[in-house]
Amino acid sequence: MNVFLRCAAAALGAMLVLGQAFAGDAEIDPAVLTEGFLAAHPDLRWRAEGVRSYDRKEYAVALTEFKRAAHYADKASQAMIAEMYWSGTGVEMDRPLAYAWMDIAAERQYHDFLVRREGMWADLSEEERRDAITRGQAVLADYGDDMAKPRLEKVLRHGQRNVTGSRVGYVGNLTIIPNTGPLAGTGMTLTGEQYYAAKYWQPEQYWRLQDAIWKAPLEGRVRVGEVETVDAPEN
Known about the structure:
Blueprint: H1 3-17, H2 35-39, H3 42-55, H4 59-71, H5 75-87, H6 95-105, H7 111-123, H8 126-143, H9 145-161, E1 175-176, E2 190-191, H10 192-195, H11 198-201, H12 203-215
Antiparallel strand pairs: 1-2
Helix pairs in contact: 1-3, 1-5, 3-4, 4-5, 5-6, 6-7, 6-8, 8-9
InterPro entries: TPR-like_helical_dom_sf (IPR011990)
Protein name: Sel1 repeat family protein
Signal peptide: 1-23
């Protein structure tokens, strides 16, 4: 596995499977990642399943699961699909198709995906570039934001309409006892305000949350600069 793929898998695993929080208000509270929450967020659910399958080296299964997440506009999963096609992990190597997927992953101008896309483009031959552009149209038509975002928004709105309390989303003093997720079996509870926070359920706010997550530097990331010559200190 190449370095980028290892980093991507590790980042996704840390951020979602382990429920790692993000800086400031732009975070996904690990406590909300219950089975019910993930059922209403298929982008997150299938990304998590894909990471688990990938970690188990069940690559063909992982690819299918990442594609399900990608169907709901999950950019991280689209980037993982690109890497799997690029390296031939669990699928026949296909560099033009890999580029097409990374191009979609970079659609929102997220820095890491943009950098990787440009790196892929630089490594393609002229023939591969033409192939990538031609075949990328079908990927864009099905998985680009214009089609994929409305799919997820429909699911989010349906989940929000099911809020206990009223049709306008008021949850009052609702208490949620998680049977799955990080709080399962701990005796701890969630308030309705935590679980049904607008940033998780209202489409416009949810997309802003995703932007904040993927545009922010990942915790623990180290940027390596050019090698410098350092003079030895004088005694």
